[in-house]
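Backbones bend. Our protein:
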Amino acid sequence: MARRFSTTQAAFSRVSMPLIGLVALLVMGLTKPALAEVSLVHAGFPHEALFGIALEGNKGLAVGMPGLVLGTDDQGKSWKPEAMINDGLALLAVAMSGNHAITVGQGGRIFKRTGSGGWTAVESGSTARLLAVDMKANGIAVATGGFGTILLSRDYGATWKSVAPSWIGIGKDDAEPHINDVKISASGIITVVGEFGLVLRSENEGRDWHVLHRGDETLFGLFMTDEGRGAAAGQDGAVLVSDGWTSEWRKIVTGRPENLLDVWIGDDGRMVATGIRTLLVSRDRGLNWTVVDRKDISTGWYVGVAAAGDGTQAVPFVVGYDARILKVGE
């Protein structure tokens, strides 16, 4: 039976929130704990946190609380504080496309920026906690969040409207599920994930939605390529993968009990999954997983993951507690 997460729990999934034998681990597809090449590139202060990260070209943004915004112009090698958004609420996700950027957060808050200008608050039409946002070069943007919220913009985030389905017959007992992540393809295909193991897709800007997967575990993070290859991560170590737009979403074994909060796939088969007190790395599209053995990981949490660079040269970065940013190498 699916466990319903409260809005607060779902957002720690973005606002803050025994010994197994080696043979058993290998059977489950999980290698013994190992120290992958993970390095700390930025650390903030206690009570700060980063929840979202976006990287494009040399530039990138990371956002969190309290109204925290960091920027990079060297593909994530270094990060500097930018002007904070001082509205007293946490920023939970960020998206970039060319000169445009959007960040979303608690209370339905949406802010947009063009070029090097300041952030401007825009009206979302929602008071729900917004947990995710994505945007493409043609100006299409989608923000998702608590209680079935799915908002769409066609003008780089200047105006928004709801494109959520009625949810009747979709979620458990017709409940409005929290929609925890969203990705838009270059051709405009929208994919979202959330409670009740839901994976939904729209090919016409939210006018129609198709259910691709239902399950027990809440899904928190989503990664999609423009070719339709995807992965979703969630509750109780769940990871789902799909090989293309017409392929089913199938569960792969991680062997971990922790909640996984986001996921990334590289062109060369590397995968990174963030979570609460865990960080998992795979080099073979999830057939085998390595637990990254670091104290800051085993006692903390990391949420958003994004990569700088393209193809086999892509370098993933993860963000989390104390405004920490880790670079995850080979």
About this structure: The first strand starts at residue 38 and ends at 42. The chain has three helices and 28 strands.
